[in-house]
Design goal:
The relative contact order is 0.17. The protein has helices at 2-22, 37-52, 86-93, 127-132, 137-154, 159-162, 171-179, 185-207, 210-222, 238-251, 265-277, 284-294, 298-313, 318-332, 346-359, 368-373, 375-378, 385-394, 500-513, 527-535, and strands at 29-33, 66-71, 95-97, 103-109, 115-121, 403-407, 455-458, 466-467, 470-471, 490-495, 498-499, 517-521, 524-525. The strands form 4 sheets. The chain has a 6-stranded mixed sheet, sandwiched between helices. With 538 residues, it is of the alpha/beta class. The two termini are 16 Å apart. The radius of gyration is 23 Å and the shape is globular.
Length: 538
């Protein structure tokens, strides 16, 4: 086991160094989670090799990026939540394949009224995808419907349809109508594809009973309910968890969610979030109630047991407390709280309206609040701790007692916190204090096929730089100009895997701070991949 850990450590260090070399970057400083043994070892080993290897001695090394090393074990919560952005729903609800997880299989209606499987390539060359991937699905549905109506109103050849009540047509109806007009297929192909994808995502989301379940996830994750009231004891919600877990699990067999390792993993995620909210310490009665509702397989039981050990050993989710402390430091220098504000319970009504618009058609799919809130509604009440931590790093306000620093020529700094290392589901396979599972990259979420390659994405608009196999994304909106960045770059590596929600919040921070942020991890982490890692099925 020690040999395996040493091998994984070596692979992680080599992956980080390889990524930095490919970008021709020599960090001017390295920050890392001081409590995490694996983050400390990777950061210090990488620093030693950079110092001793002449190949890293690039020009202008003093203006090199800050390298921030995070540990997935400090935040096992974010990979579990259902998120409402377009990209997250595509990854959750549809079949996604390819090294960069950009080949999406969906059902497409033919002219004969039949359906066939189509594969969509969702990458930087798809302007509609780039524009909408990080937006709340309600805003996406509303925008797509508006664009189709606008297109129809401008084209006399579409008079037959435009004379009808297009406001009452669903996304599926609109896509079908456009297919019947071959003269417009070239112009509407992109809209047609994304209307079909969004409609299928929302149909499955509804069929799995995830509207209410995902809101309960938000309450458990934040400790705040839909009305903004604090939840004093998560244990009081065990009945709700059991009821909704049973409902989601009962819906799963009727829905084809082959992108997930197991159909009722959606129900498992709700139960897993409850385990995290209870710090992994459930009474026998609680465990019996949720297990009776979920009826977990041996694999799922193994995942829950491993997760319990991780959060119990660390007394919860350390990254959330770190983010709270970092937020205070940001507030002290006048950083606006708007980038970290919570959305209200209009999220649920916006989702319901979006489902109706996608499946049955309504006058307006999203409420005015959903349209105006834009990306703030995407994260709902829960904001990944990584957002505040990345923001603090961009403003040079990371708590020094929690995030140790290794600067050029400074030697090693091994500061610690919270009285010990605890158990870690980390990418070096460490199981320090409770037998937490080895947590290297999961094959189901791997970006480059190699379990130790760092998958990363950048906000830069120049396309020539690549971090492992993931292309650097372009601008967020179609036709938007390249953003001009100031100051050193910020490179963030998450050992144990980076989630799509963390990629999204990195965009938010880069836009708000004008700092280029490059985010990567030992894998591009999906919920299925995270559950597989916890259960030991890698």
């Amino acid at each position: 086991r020690d040999a395996a850990r040493a091998e994984l450590l070596e692979r992680n260090v080599a992956a980080v160094l390889s990524a930095l070399l490919s970008l021709k970057m020599q960090p001017s400083s390295i920050r890392y989670q001081a409590q995490s043994r694996v983050a400390r070892r990777v950061a210090q080993e990488a620093a030693d090799r950079i110092e001793g290897d002449g190949i890293f001695h690039f020009k202008n090394r003093s203006s090199g990026p800050m390298l921030l090393v995070l540990d997935r074990a400090d935040d096992p919560l974010t990979p579990l939540l259902h998120e409402y952005t377009y990209q997250a729903l595509v990854q959750d609800m549809l079949t996604v394949q390819g090294d960069a997880r950009d080949n999406v299989t969906y059902s497409k209606a033919t002219k004969a009224g039949e359906t066939k499987d189509e594969v969509a390539l969702l990458n930087e060359n798809d302007a509609v995808w780039v524009e909408f991937r990080h937006k709340h699905i309600a805003s996406v549905v509303d925008a797509l419907r508006s664009r189709v109506r606008e297109f129809l109103s401008r084209n006399a050849g579409a008079a037959m349809m435009s004379r009808g009540k297009t406001s009452d047509l669903s996304l599926t109806d609109m896509a079908s109508a456009l297919k019947r007009m071959p003269e417009f297929q070239a112009a509407t192909a992109a809209l047609n594809k994304h209307m079909t994808l969004a409609s299928e995502c929302l149909s499955k989301f509804q069929a799995l009973s995830l509207l209410e379940a995902s809101q309960l996830e938000q309450t458990l994750a934040t400790g705040v309910d839909d009305d903004g009231d604090a939840v004093r004891n998560p244990k009081d919600l065990v009945a709700d968890v059991a009821e909704l877990a049973a409902k989601v699990a009962g819906s799963a067999p009727a829905v084809s969610t082959v992108s997930m390792t197991g159909a009722n993993d959606h129900a498992l995620r709700l139960v897993a979030i409850y385990f995290v909210a209870r710090n992994g310490r459930l009474s026998s009665d609680e465990r019996q109630r949720v297990f009776a509702a979920l009826n977990p397989s041996p694999r799922q039981q193994a995942a829950l047991l491993a997760l319990s050990k991780v959060v119990a050993a660390r007394s919860g989710v350390p990254a959330k407390e770190d983010a709270r402390k970092a937020a205070k430091l940001l507030a002290a220098i006048g950083v606006a709280k708007s980038s970290r504000k919570r959305a209200s319970k209009t999220t649920l009504s916006a989702l319901r309206n979006a489902v109706r618009a996608a499946t049955r058609g309504t006058a307006s799919s999203a409420s005015a609040a959903a349209r105006d809130a834009d990306d703030d509604i995407a994260a709902s009440r829960y904001v990944p701790p990584a957002k505040t931590l990345i923001e603090a790093a961009a403003h040079d306000r990371l708590p020094e007692d929690l995030y140790a620093s290794h600067t050029h020529g400074s030697g090693k700094n091994g500061a610690s916190r919270r009285g010990g290392s605890g158990a870690a589901a980390s990418s070096d396979g460490a199981a320090d204090a409770g037998g937490a599972p080895e947590s290297s990259s999961s094959s189901s979420g791997n970006v480059a096929g190699d379990k130790t390659k760092v998958a990363a994405q950048s906000v830069r608009t120049r396309g020539q730089s690549r971090f492992a196999a993931a292309a650097a994304p372009g601008p967020r909106g179609a036709g938007s100009r390249a953003q001009k960045f100031v100051g050193p770059r910020l490179v963030v590596v998450v050992l144990g895997g980076v989630t799509y929600s963390e990629l999204r919040v990195a965009y938010d921070v880069a836009e708000a701070t004008n700092r280029e942020v490059i985010v990567g991890g030992t894998t591009l982490l999906t919920p299925a991949g995270f559950l597989d890692t916890l259960s030991g099925h890698k």
